[in-house]
Amino acid sequence: MTNKDELQKELKEKVTAGVKPSDIKKLKRSKSTGDIPNAIPNPLPPPNLLKDQLTQKQKDLESLIKKLEETNQELKATKQQLDDSLTARIAGVKLFGQEHSKRNQVEQELDQTIDQASSELNQGDNQITNLKSQLYQSQQQVSNLQHQLNLARLNKNSKNSPLLTPPNLATNFDYLPLTLYALLAV
To answer: What proportions of the chain, in percent to the nearest 5, are helix, strand and coil?
Structure first.
């Protein structure tokens, strides 16, 4: 046997459960078995206790599986509620978008109507202004014509009255023979 084989055989004899590699190094150095601590044997519980523990663990496992199934069902229900909520929100957003576009369209139509009405009012104001100026000019013309008519009437009345106007010899020949007679008599 080689030195290596002897060492392995020695290690196998001295290594037991609970021996650390550092303890084996101490063994190599000291070469005495008193340096290796005694491993505490792992006492096994009685078989009935193991069966009871196994039964209890199976019951615990079954209850955990039931809880997991219940949680999964609750999760599915919650997920369905969230999906329904999301669907409702999407429908709400679509409806809002439609209503918003309708509102924008109505606002545009209202703005156009206001612009048209404003321009019609401005045109009406311009026409009223033009008509007022024409009415003023017409009133001025009527006033002038009335004044001229009054002057013409006065002129006519003054021509018909011999006392108010001196006789014009060149234009009034009816009085000419009388005037000559009066001159001759004097």
So the answer is: 80, 0, 20
CB atoms within 10 A of CB 27: 19
Q: Quote the CA–CA distance of 73 and 70 in Å, as a whole number.
A: 5
Whether 34 and 21 have beta carbons less than 8 Å apart is answered as: no
Digits of tens for pLDDT over the chain (186 positions)?
Answer: 577 788 777 767 766 656 665 666 665 554 555 555 555 555 666 778 888 889 999 999 999 999 999 999 999 999 999 999 999 999 999 999 999 999 999 999 999 999 999 999 999 999 999 999 988 998 898 888 888 888 888 888 777 655 544 544 445 566 667 777 777 776
The closest of 45, 14, 48 to 28, measured between CA atoms, is 14
Beta carbons within 8 Å of 159's beta carbon, 6+ residues apart = 165
- The predicted model scores a pTM of 0.37
